[in-house]
Amino acid sequence: MDAVSVGIRFDGSEASRKTVVLAHGAGAPMDSPFLERITTGLAGRGLRVARFEFPYMQRRRRSEPGRLPDPPPVLEGRWREVLAALGDPSRCVIGGKSLGGRIASLVADAAGVAGLVCLGYPFHPPGKPERPRTAHLAALRTPALIVQGARDPFGTREEAATYALSPSIRLHFLEDGDHSFAPRARSGRTLDGNLAEAIDVVARFVHEL
User: Residue ranges of the domains in the chain?
Assistant: First the structure.
């Protein structure tokens, strides 16, 4: 399959040494305001950005049945299709928002990608810390960056400190941010500020690889 048939959307410079490949979260598509902002910011820092959608999100666009997230094997299979369409995986940094980043983390080592970026990693379902999604992260070999809101209900800063994570993983917390990085008004911070910080951190990570 080629980039067109997989439905990959490109932004940014074709001259970039690395392509940042982003998948969406469970509930919003690849052109959500969150991913639009992240994409625009990374492209503005000289990076090539590729976005795609999982099959269930493509069905949603067509108003077809089966609009819940696909089973993990299907989601992982889509990641492999996308990487095959893009070519050399060693030039790709893969990841995305929440679900998209989690599935990327499951295929990263086997795919041989340059890096992994997770934007709001779902360490556990909200309100269910007894159901962690971290077992594979202990042995992850791929250089990884997780950008997390400090009060994310899917995994706060305090909860993340208790997980056994691979030394290949860097954690960056956005002060008072929720799962979409939005802070509370009383914190004195803004969503724009947290998104800008996230973009800066991700761009620096990718350029250093």
Answer: 3-208
Tell me: the pLDDT tens digits for 196-206?
A: 999 999 999 99
The closest of 65, 64, 13 to 207, measured between CA atoms, is 13
CATH class (in words) of the domain with range 3-208: alpha beta
Buried b (16+ CB within 10 A) or exposed e, 152-185: bbbbbbebbeebebeebbebebbebbbbbbbbee
- pLDDT tens-digit series, residues 46-103: 999 999 999 999 999 888 877 789 999 999 999 999 999 999 999 999 999 999 999 9
Mean pLDDT, range 20-49, rounded to an integer:
96
CB 103 within 8 A of CB 74: no
From residue 98, alpha-carbon distances to 17, 86, 90 in Å are 25, 22, 23
Whole-model pTM: value is 0.94
